[in-house]
Amino acid sequence: MTRREIIKQGGLALTALALPFTLTAFAKFNSMTDKNNFDVIIIGGSYAGLSSAMALGRSKRNILIIDSGLPCNRQTPHSHNFITQDGVKPSEIADNAKSQVLKYDTVKILNDLAVSGQKSENGFIITTQTGKEFKAKKLIFATGIKDIMPNIRGFSECWGISVIHCPYCHGYEFRNQKTGIFSNGEKAFHVTSLVHNLTDDITILTSGKAEFNNEQLAKLNKHNIRIVEKEIAEIEHENGQIKNMIFKDNSKMSFDAVYSSVPFKQHSDIPASLGCELTEQGYIKVDNFQKTTVKGIFACGDNSTMMRSVAYAVATGGITGSMTNKELTDEQF
Ligand SMILES: Cc1cc2nc3c(=O)[nH]c(=O)nc-3n(C[C@H](O)[C@H](O)[C@H](O)COP(=O)(O)OP(=O)(O)OC[C@H]3O[C@@H](n4cnc5c(N)ncnc54)[C@H](O)[C@@H]3O)c2cc1C
Question: Which of 4, 96, 225, 323 has the fewest Cβ atoms within 10 Å of its own Cβ atom?
Answer without folding.
Answer: 4
